[in-house]
Amino acid sequence: MSELAGDDTLTFEAAAAVRTAFQAIERMRTHGSEGRGLSSGAMDVLLRLSATDEDGLSIGDLAQSAGVSSRNVTGLVDTLEKDGLVRRVQDQRDRRSVLARITPEGRAWIEAFRKPSQLAMAAMFRGFSPEELTSLRHLCLRLADNQQRLADYLTAQEGR
């Protein structure tokens, strides 16, 4: 019984450490966007759009990739469009659909943000070997995968 309790304590401590690390990285990420006029959510949408081809992405695709609601993404795209960083365009493959596309101003914003962010992340991960960074990445992705499986299971249980 005490062995199980020790395991429970270890998992809670590991979860707390992951949460603390996440918060530290988010504080650094948010700090980089302060004074640049974008919320963390808007910055995330802009980064996702900067990584796509010139066609852009639908609101639904953006929402799914970010793990948030379409309503949330619609508001973020509204803000980015108002700032001239994103524009809505008609999908050439489906005239009923609208895509969000990053503008040249949006790409310039990303480039201006990228270099200081790279320097900040390099400082945050200073002292980590490439092997440690690879392991950390894999462990974090494994946590995310486990969380998704658990969420799917819980959702299925609610439907019973």
What can you tell me about this protein's structure?
By secondary structure, the protein is mostly helical. The chain is built from six helices and three strands; from the N terminus they run ααβααββαα. It has helices at 2-33, 40-50, 59-66, 70-82, 104-124, 130-158, and strands spanning 57-58, 86-90, 98-102. A three-stranded antiparallel sheet has the order 1-3-2. A hairpin with a 7-residue loop joins β2 (86-90) and β3 (98-102). The longest helix is centred in the N-terminal third of the chain and has 32 residues, at 2-33. It is globular, with a radius of gyration of 19 Å. It starts with a helix and ends with a helix.
Task: Give the arrangement of secondary structure elements.
Elements: H1 2-33, H2 40-50, E1 57-58, H3 59-66, H4 70-82, E2 86-90, E3 98-102, H5 104-124, H6 130-158
Antiparallel strand pairs: 1-3, 2-3
Helix pairs in contact: 1-5, 2-4, 3-4
Essential attributes:
71% helix; mainly alpha; globular; 6 helices
Distance between the termini: 33 Å
Mean pLDDT: 87
Strand content: 5-15%
Number of strands: 3
How many DSSP H or I helices?
6
- What structural class do the secondary elements suggest? mainly alpha
- Global shape: globular
What's the gyration radius in Å? 19 Å
- Stretches where pLDDT is under 50 for at least 5 consecutive residues are none
Q: How are the strands of the biggest sheet laid out side by side?
A: 1-3-2
Main beta sheet: strand number and arrangement?
Answer: 3 strands, antiparallel
Helix content: over 70%
The H-and-E topology, N to C, reads as: HHEHHEEHH
